[in-house]
Amino acid sequence: MVTALAVIAALLSVAAVATAVLALRILGQLRASVAVLNRGAEGEAESLLESSGRHAAAAEQLTARYGDVLVAIERQRLQTEQTATAVRAELAATITHLLTETGKGLRRVAMVRYDAFEDLAGRMSFSVALLDDHGDGVTITAINGRADSRVYAKGVQASAGAGTDLSPEEQQAVKAAMAR
């Protein structure tokens, strides 16, 4: 029985030695892997841990910069909106001003031709009304006779004579001008 125990003990010791050799081999491979992590692969100046740390720091910087870029974009968007609002307000004011000013232009014009005297034909006399949108302006009347011609100008305010009465022909010209 002692020989059987000795054989079993010998087998167990061989198995233990084989296991130890295998463990040492695995330990060597692990040490080589740790060495690569600590010193980097062949020809590299930094280890994998250093490289990972550097990349993590770069990622933090990019994240911070991304936040700064988002803030800058938002600031630019607000400035653009403010500028657009200011431009719209300025355009509205300009349009209002232009409409007011163009209303002051002598845009309403009409002419009435007539015979000033019964013995003359050809409707050579005329009255012209030159008015703005408010009915302010001037009438010019030319009366042609056989021997002479006379020209009169009268001011018009709110479609009525300013200080002088308008003749029926001038009133007709004013009315026609305001109807346009």
Integer-rounded radius of gyration: 53 Å
The succession of helices and strands, N to C, reads HHEEEEEH
The share of residues in helices is 55-70%
- Strand line-up in the sheet with most strands: 1-2-3-4-5
Main beta-sheet annotation: 5 strands, antiparallel
Number of helices: 3
N- and C-termini, Cα separation: 137 Å
Average pLDDT for all residues:
87
Beta-strand portion reads 15-25%
Overall form: rod-shaped
Q: pLDDT under 50 segments (min length 5)?
A: none
Kindly state the number of beta strands. Answer: 5
What structural class do the secondary elements suggest?
alpha+beta
Concise description?
The chain has 180 residues and is α+β, with helices and mostly antiparallel strands. The protein has 3 helices and 5 strands.
Task: Please describe what this structure looks like.
By secondary structure, this protein is α+β, with helices and mostly antiparallel strands. It is 59% helix and 18% strand. Strands 1-2-3-4-5 form a 5-stranded antiparallel beta sheet, with helices on one face. The mean pLDDT is 87.
